[in-house]
Design a protein that fits this description.
Layout (H helix, E strand, L loop, with lengths): L1 E2 L3 H15 L5 E4 L4 H7 L3 H9 L3 E4 L2 H9 L7 E3 L22 E6 L8 H10 L1 H4 L3 E6 L4 H10 L6 E5 L3 H10 L2 E4 L8 H8 L4 E3 L14 E3 L5 H13 L2 H13 L5 H17 L2
Helix pairs in contact: 5-10
C-alpha cells in the first residue's frame, strides 16, 4: 500500500494492523514529500514509529529518505529504495537551435503555491526583467492558486516573458516537454518529483533545490541547485543558461544518462525482485 502523510498515514495504519492480525505480509510505500514535517510536528512520534515497524518492508524513494527513516529508529533491514518511475519520453521533432538566437525556453510543471517555488521564480525574474526580456520564455503548468499566479505575472509586467498554461496533461504535457530547454522546480520540500525525472528523460538540465531526493539526480553535471526561497539565486541560474546556451545540451545529455534507472523496465524489474524476496522470506 502507498501512503502520504497526515490523514493518509492514519488510514493506512488501520489497514496495516488489520493485515498483520490476519498474518499477511505488508509492504508500505512512502511517497509523501512532507512525511518528515508530519513526523517532526507530531506529538505521537513513538506511535508512528511503532506502526512503521509493523510492516515487513518500507519502500522509500531515495538514499536520503532511507537514512532519515533509519535515524528515527526504523529497522534498516526493512527499508528498500525503489526509484520513482517515469514514462519513456515521446519526443516529437527537433527544436529550433539556440544558435538561431531564439529565447531560452524554461518550463515549470507542478502545484501552484509556495511549496513548489513557482512564486520564487517569478520574484527572481521580476528583479531582472529588463535583462531577461526577449532572452527567455517561461511556461508554467499547474493548478491550485491560479488567480494569485496570474495576478503576480500581470502586476510585475511579465506577460512578455511568462505564460501560464493552467493544468496540463496528456498531449499538452508532451508538447511542453518537447518545447522546453531547461526545467525549473525550486521546491521547498520534496520526496523525488516525477516532473524532474520526466524533464530529464527529455534531455533537459534542471534548476532545483537540495531537498528530499533531488540531489541524488541533479548535480553540477546536469543542473543547478539553489537554496529554497532564494529568488536571486534562481535568477542567476536562469541567466547562467542564457549566457552559456552550449551547456544546455551537454547537461541535458547527462540528465538522460542519470534517469535511465528510473525508466519502466529497470524499476519494474526491481519491484519484481522485491516481491519475490518477500514471498520467499519466512
Amino acid at each position: 500500500m502507498h501512503t502520504a502523510a497526515d490523514g493518509s498515514f492514519w488510514r493506512k495504519v488501520q489497514l496495516i494492523r488489520l493485515a498483520k492480525r490476519m498474518r499477511r505480509k505488508v509492504i508500505l510505500h512512502v511517497h509523501a514529500s512532507r512525511f518528515k514535517d508530519f513526523y517532526e510536528e507530531s506529538n505521537r512520534k513513538p506511535w508512528i514509529l511503532e506502526n512503521l515497524q509493523r510492516v515487513d518492508l518500507l519502500i522509500v524513494l531515495s538514499a536520503s529518505w532511507k537514512e532519515w527513516f533509519t535515524n528515527i529508529g526504523m529497522s534498516e533491514d526493512k527499508i528498500v529504495i525503489l526509484h520513482n518511475i517515469t514514462e519513456y519520453p515521446q519526443k516529437k521533432g527537433d527544436k529550433v537551435p539556440l544558435e538561431k538566437g531564439r529565447p531560452v525556453r524554461f518550463l515549470f510543471l507542478g502545484e501552484i503555491g509556495e511549496r513548489k517555488g513557482v512564486f520564487d521564480i517569478l520574484g527572481g525574474i521580476s528583479q531582472h526583467k529588463e535583462e531577461l526580456n526577449g532572452k527567455i520564455k517561461l511556461r508554467i503548468g499547474g493548478n491550485k492558486h491560479e488567480t494569485e499566479l496570474q495576478k503576480q505575472i500581470t502586476d510585475n509586467g511579465l506577460e512578455n516573458i511568462v505564460n501560464f498554461e493552467g493544468w496540463v496533461s496528456g498531449d499538452k504535457k508532451i508538447e511542453l516537454l518537447n518545447w522546453a530547454d531547461v526545467f525549473i522546480l525550486p521546491s521547498h520540500n520534496e520526496g523525488l518529483p516525477i516532473s524532474i525525472l520526466e524533464a530529464m528523460s527529455y534531455g533537459m538540465p534542471v534548476i532545483s533545490t537540495p531537498v528530499g531526493g533531488i540531489p541524488e539526480v541533479v548535480n553540477k553535471q546536469n543542473g543547478i541547485l539553489v537554496q529554497p526561497g532564494n529568488e536571486e539565486a534562481i535568477a542567476q541560474s536562469i541567466i547562467h543558461f542564457v549566457e552559456h546556451p552550449s551547456k544546455i545540451a551537454i547537461m541535458g545529455n547527462h540528465s538522460q544518462e542519470v534517469v535511465k534507472t528510473y525508466l519502466p523496465d529497470y524499476v519494474m524489474s526491481q519491484l519484481k525482485e522485491i516481491y519475490e524476496k518477500l514471498l520467499l522470506k519466512k
